[in-house]
Every structure is written in structure tokens, then in C-alpha cells.
Amino acid sequence: MIRRFMCRPRARRPPKAFSRAIVTLVILLNTAFAAAVLWIYCARGTEPTALIAAWFAFTTGELWMLARIKNHELDTINGEAKEGTRDGTG
To answer: pTM here?
Structure first.
């Protein structure tokens, strides 16, 4: 009887939960980064412009790639892959 419960397959989390977790993490990291930049600006009187640009470019790029992957998965599931490319990405 115990063996039956131990051998049951685990329930898998849906892929949507992973995307939501990434988006939530990026929002929290951006908020923390903005607070840290404001603290640095108040303490030093200078603004790290290049760091700000690089950080937000990185996080924006990550979210765009996540959205592109998600759209590609939905297109592939619906059978709407674009003609002319190997993977249907455009």
C-alpha cells in the first residue's frame, strides 16, 4: 500500500506558471533596482546612466524573448507556423 503512493507520478506544473514566475521576478528585480538607483542618487548625487540603460535593456529583452517563445509555442500548437522558415519564427 505504501509503495503505491510512493510510485505515483508527480503532478507537473503547467508551463504558464513558469512564465508568470519569470515576469513576476523581473518586475520585482526592476523595482529593487530602481530603489537602489534612487538610494545611490541620494547618497552620491550622481546617476549611473549606463548601468540603468543596460539593466532595463536586458530585462526588456528577456521579456520580449519570453513573449516570442510563448507566441511560437501557441502558433505551433494551432498549426499556424509561417511558411518559408525552418522553425516558423518569421
So the answer is: 0.63
Could you state, in order of their start, the residue ranges of all structural domains in the chain? 16-78
SS3 annotation, the chain: CHHHHHCCCCCCCCHHHHHHHHHHHHHHHHHHHHHHHHHHHHHHCCCCHHHHHHHHHHHHHHHHHHHHHHHHHHHHHHCCCCCCCCCCCC
**Predicted confidence (pLDDT) per residue in 7-57, tens digit:** 666 666 566 778 888 899 999 999 999 999 999 999 999 989 999 999 999
